[in-house]
Structures are given as C-alpha cells and as structure tokens.
Amino acid sequence: GDAPGAERLFADAIRNDPDLFTAKNNLVLARGAQRQYDLPVVKMTQVERAQLMYTMALTAVKQGDVATGRGLLRDAIETHPQHFEAAARSLETLEDTVGN
Asked: Is the model's pTM score more than 0.70?
C-alpha cells in the first residue's frame, strides 16, 4: 500500500543492479499506482521499454485511465522492434470493449 516507498526501494535495487528487469517492472507498477504514467529514467533496452510501457498501460486501464492506457499500448507496439502480440491483443480487446 506504500507506493512511494516501494518506488524508492525498487529504484535503489536498480541502482545496485541496472539489469534487474523485475525491479524495473515493479518500479513501473509503483509509479502507475500513483498515476504517474511516464517511464522512470533507468537504463533499458528497446524491448524492455516496450514491455514496461505495456505494464504501465495495463496499470492505467485498471485505474480507469483508459485513454492513457490505450496510448501507452500504442506506444508499446510502436516501440517494440518486433511484433508485440500481447500488447496488440490487449489494444484490440480494449478498443472492442470501449467501442461497444
């Protein structure tokens, strides 16, 4: 329940090991819980960036910020160097659900 505290701890973990993807993902979740939908400034690959945008998008949708989530899903799909099936499927589902 302490999203700001969790954010600090995950940021510390990443400073200690910049390759910890789970810590990066959890940092994005902690930020999303605070409705901070911008990615943190940490070292990441292009694939990680797309995956973190996907995580942030799902967090935004769960919080009711559907338009933000839709935009993040589109960004994740565009950022990923290959076809990002999970993000594409989520965007399609979201657009079908919101469209009806």
From this structure: yes
CA dihedral 7, 59, 50, 27 (to 10 degrees): 10
Tokens of 28: 């994005």
- CA–CA distance, 28 with 54 (Å, rounded to integer): 10
Contacts of 70 (CB under 8 A, 6+ apart): 57, 61, 91, 94, 95, 98
Nearest by Cα to 56 from 74, 42, 81: 74
In tens, the pLDDT along 15-34 reads: 999 999 999 999 999 999 99
Write down the residue that tokens 């200690």 correspond to: 16
Neighbouring C-beta atoms of residue 81, cutoff 10 Å: 9
Q: One-letter amino acid identity for 35?
A: R
Judged by DSSP in three states, 45 sits in coil
Question: Which amino acid is present at 81?
Answer: P
